[in-house]
Amino acid sequence: MPTYKIIGLTYLAVGILTCLAMLTGYLRTRSLNLDKLPLTKLLVWVCRLLVGALFFYSGFVKANDFIGFGYKLEEYFYVFKMPFMVPYAETLAWFISIFEIALAFAIVLGFRMRQTAWLALLMMIFFTWLTGYSHFTGKVTDCGCFGDALKIKPWESFTKDLILLLMLIPVFLARKYIRPVPSSKIAGFVVLGAFVLSGAYAYWCHQNLPLIDYRPYKVGVDLNECTTVPGPEGIPKCKDWYLEFLIGEEFPVFEGNTLMIDLYYMDKAPEVALRESAELARALPPDVRVVGLTNTSPSVVQQLIEQYGIPYPFAFLDETVLKTIIRSSPGYVLLKDGVILQKWHYNNRPSAKEIEALLR
Question: How far apart are CA 261 and CA 296, in angstroms?
Fold first, then answer.
């Protein structure tokens, strides 16, 4: 049995036990005063810790790569026929990720529990409905709850939210008896600090690259295997890899030294970044071949090639694959015989000397 399923069963057992303890205590004393129900007080603490841990993990993996979570929100907006929200998907993804982290600390530390419990409960009711909709309609196959760190099926995500909702109920019912630890002021500073620091961390990952790469195209992966060898589900981990050279001379990308320049939405890439990519390509030695990967129409690509003097050929690849390879456009991926040696955001564009040093 997978580890996450064991953890889920543990959460379910604790949630049921806590609800039963609170119900028994209430029937016996006609009160939910936790000071008179030490067993229930302990179990509510356990619920708070487990719920807080899950909220923190969920928020952290999203903050680490909120661009990816933003793509998932865009999918939901299109499903619910709300295209006007698509431009705000990335900002909303950033806020949700850091809000979850701050909420995790607030639950564990007992900060303003009357408000915190309501926020947590309403958020879980909404996400339970959302994952339930995904499960029963099949319109969204991955909720993106844990980003690329943990891929779970819609029914697993829905079950997870039901269990989490069950564990939140005792915390919600006991909210007025939960005191802040160690004090209201200190708990408030910690929650605020968590919000600010997680927001800064998410922004740093956005401006560079995710600090932890959970996607298939991470450093060290051999694309010769990742794009061809079937995984447990019968398809390669790096799926839908179909390169089609349409502009410039074709060459085997997975042979020798190759610098792939990922340019999804090429027409929206920063002008200075396009010029710098052309300069880097011209500065590299002949044994390092360069290829641009894009999903932009050939006519637009040809126009930009002429405008910025881009010297490398272009191959066309599926949009989802391009966005999965690297969270940057342009983004640089260095290969040696198909193995990913390094990846860079355009804000950290490598120099020709840096690339040569890595290939020695």
Answer: 13
SS3 content of the chain, % helix, strand, coil (to 5): 60, 10, 30
Contacts of 104 (CB under 8 A, 6+ apart): 51, 52, 53, 54, 55, 56, 59, 194
Residue spans per domain, the chain: 3-207, 223-359
**Cα 94 off chain centre by:** 10
Contact 110, 180 (CB under 8 A): yes
Please name the CATH architecture into which domain 223-359 falls.
Answer: 3-Layer(aba) Sandwich (3.40)
- pTM for the model stands at 0.86
Q: Which helix (DSSP H) or strand (DSSP E) does residue 115 occupy? A: helix 113-137
Residue range 209-264, pLDDT digits in tens: 999 998 999 999 999 999 998 877 788 999 889 999 989 888 999 999 999 999 98
What are 124-135's pLDDT values in tens digits? Answer: 888 888 888 877
